[in-house]
Amino acid sequence: MNNTFDTLYENILANISEGEKKGLWHNIRKKRGNPSSKWKNDPKYRKQMKDQAKKIASEKDIHDPVRPGILKRQVKGKVTCSKARSIKGKQKDKSNNTAKAAQRFLNYHCEASKATCCGRCGRVHVKGTKCKRPYLKGKDHCRNN
Ligand SMILES: [Zn+2]
Q1: In the 3-class helix/strand/coil scheme, how is the chain assigned residue by residue?
Q2: Which of 44, 85, 87, 113 gives the lowest tally of CB atoms within 10 Å of its CB?
Q3: pLDDT digits (tens, 9 = 90+) for 73-96
Q4: Confidence band, pLDDT 50/70/90 cuts, at residue 11
């Protein structure tokens, strides 16, 4: 358990830029005060670290092209939002490279699939999906956060 965590931790530090590293430490310090030598064993901190790791890992996943051109090879002509959506829908395994590439295309090029602040319900969600109740107003509205 300790080893797994330490490996994970070292991997994160090895894979993030100086700026991100500073941000990470800054966040940890801010939340914890100055960490003592025991800080690595604090379950709360470890959870936080894992969450950070997941976040960083998923961001890397989205931004790094896995196999450039993977979508282009599968459509006639230009890749469009609807073609990308249909390719994604056809994948049985949603975690394969094609599905990821399609999702990445959607994330970057298709506004409709992005979650945005909804003026009506005051929550952040994808346009066209249902509004959750209760509607948030005033200081709770996502516009004001
Ligand atoms: Zn809404």
Answers
A1: CHHHHHHHHHHHHHHCCHHHHHHHHHHHHHHHCCCCCCHHHCHHHHHHHHHHHHHHHHHHHHHCCCCCCCCHHHCCCCCCHHHHHHHHHHCCCCCCHHHHHHHHHHHHHCHHHCEEECCCCCCEEECCCCCCCCCCCHHHCHHHC
A2: 44
A3: 888 888 888 899 899 999 999 889
A4: low
User: Do residues 8 and 53 lie in contact, with contact meaning Cβ atoms separated by under 8 Å?
Assistant: yes
Q: Measured in angstroms, how far is the CA atom of residue 119 from the centroid of ligand 1? A: 7
Q: How many Å lie between the centroid of ligand 1 and the Cα of residue 62?
A: 26
Residue 136 has pLDDT above 90, yes or no: yes
Ligand 1 centre and the CA of 110: distance in Å? 19
CA distance 30 to 33: 6
